[in-house]
Amino acid sequence: MTTGSVPETPTPPSQPSLARRLLTHSWVAQLALVIGFIALAAWQIDLGQVAHAFTHVKYGWMPIALGVYIAGRLLHAWEWQLVLTKVGQAPFFGLFGVLLVGTLVNAVLPANLGDVAKVQVMANRYGISRAGLIAGRGAESVVNGLMFVIFVVVSLFLAGDRGAPQAAIWAMAALVTVICAAAIFVSLRMPGTMPSWRVLNRLPSGLHQGLTEHWPRLHDGFEAIRRPRLLLILLLLNVAGWVVDIAIEYAYGHAFNLDVPLGAYVSVTVALSLITTFPITFGNVGSWEFGVLGVLALYDVPSDQALAYAVGAHVFMTVFNIAVGLLAMLLLGVKLRDILALRSTAHNAATS
Questions:
Q1: What is the pTM of this model?
Q2: Which of 249, 194, 252, 237 shows the shortest CA–CA distance to 80?
Q3: Mean pLDDT per 10-residue run, the chain (352 residues)?
Q4: What pLDDT shows up at residue 114?
Q5: Which residues lie below 8 Å from residue 203, measured CB to CB, with a gap of 6+?
Q6: Which of 13, 135, 285, 290 lies deepest, with the highest CB count within 10 Å?
Q7: Residue 58 CB neighbours (<10 A)
Q8: Gap between the Cα atoms of 307 and 138, Å rounded
Q9: Is 315 helix (H, G, I), strand (E, B) or coil?
Q10: Where are the alpha helices (DSSP H) in the chain?
Q11: From the CB of residue 28, how many other CB atoms can be counted at a distance below 10 Å?
Q12: What is the largest CA-CA distance in the chain?
């Protein structure tokens, strides 16, 4: 060091961001849950019999299941295009590809981050408002919630008196119905510009200004709920989507030699819908399997065969989701930065 120079202050090591620390803690907690699920399975179930069940799989049903799955994704892309009627325009197969990318992210990351990825890619690639996309997801959730209640009722009817916790299931269905009804009421009464409600005027100035700016786009995102013809089409597409999901479970069930009535596949689909909507582990590892085990136990399916079916269907679906998601990223030219970037790169980007 030169005489008389100011001593250099060592640079403190950079601290990880709060988001990164939360993500790390989330991964640790979810990994602990997965290990717990595996330990419980090893304790309660003969894993040797589970492995033996894989030697009798009818693999010819697998491409059928995956073909039906692709048909379901195409239906979902059409549904999404209708939801975004007033939010913005994107090519149909672009929407389809973005859906596959979102499913890929959900398969490998926790907390349904695939929804975040879809918003990011749509905003960055097609210049569609993030606020409108988020509101559109809310409108989709309302339609999905209504169909969830209907298929819960159908599954209870088909299951009959099999020991299912009907009181808890009915209470959950009633709660979802109330939430969906409230969301529909709010969307119908929602003004096109931010109203001067007292509760909104009490918000911090920065939040109030941002909400004022984005309110019209949030209003646009719920347009499908306000248009009866559009809402009816979405409900019909959602019913078709549920039928597709039940058909997928039916195909996997035949691949794993399950001898159960149609009601079992409806119940499994309802359970998986709930599990994937509120994930507690990354990729729903463990929670998916034990949810399926619980449902199939009502139909007297041996635990080893039920677990083989649950694990096999989950693994095949996850591997397929990752493969087609990577292919979609390649064909769309989507890079990791397109998911992470906060500023739109589209030439005609709309304000988000």
A1: 0.81
A2: 237
A3: 49 50 55 56 56 78 92 94 92 94 84 83 89 93 92 86 78 90 90 84 84 89 91 94 95 92 93 85 79 90 87 88 92 76 45 40
A4: 84
A5: 211
A6: 135
A7: 11
A8: 34
A9: helix
A10: 18-44, 47-53, 61-83, 92-108, 113-126, 130-159, 166-189, 198-201, 205-221, 223-226, 228-255, 262-277, 287-297, 303-332, 336-340
A11: 10
A12: 90
The span from the CA of 327 to the CA of 154, in Å, is 37
Distances (CA, A) of 54 to 195, 212, 256, 283: 60, 57, 8, 22
Q: What is the pLDDT of residue 237?
A: 94
What b/e string do you get for 100-126 counting C-beta neighbours within 10 Å, with b at 16 or more? bbbbbbbbebbbbbbbbbbbbbbbbbb
Tokens matching residue 16: 């990880």
Residue 328 · residue 334 · CB < 8 Å: yes
DSSP state of 161: S
Name the nearest CA neighbour of 340 among 142, 22, 147, 120. Answer: 120
Cα dihedral value 325, 329, 334, 335, nearest 10 = 80
Alpha carbon 208 to its chain centroid, in Å, reads 30
| Amino acid identity for residue 45 in this structure | I
Rounded to an integer, what is the distance from CA 102 to the centroid of its chain?
8
How far apart, in whole angstroms, are the C-alpha atoms of residue 327 and residue 67? Answer: 16
DSSP 70-137: HHHHHHHHHHHHHHTTTT----HHHHHHHHHHHHHHHHHSSTTHHHHHHHHHHHHHH---HHHHHHHH
For 231, the token pair is: 């809402």
Which residue has tokens 């961001």? 17
Contact yes or no for 291/63 (Cβ under 8 A): no
Distance of alpha carbon 87 from alpha carbon 130, whole angstroms: 9
- The Cα 108–Cα 283 span in angstroms is 6
Token pair for 283: 């990729």
Residue 245 has a pLDDT of: 94
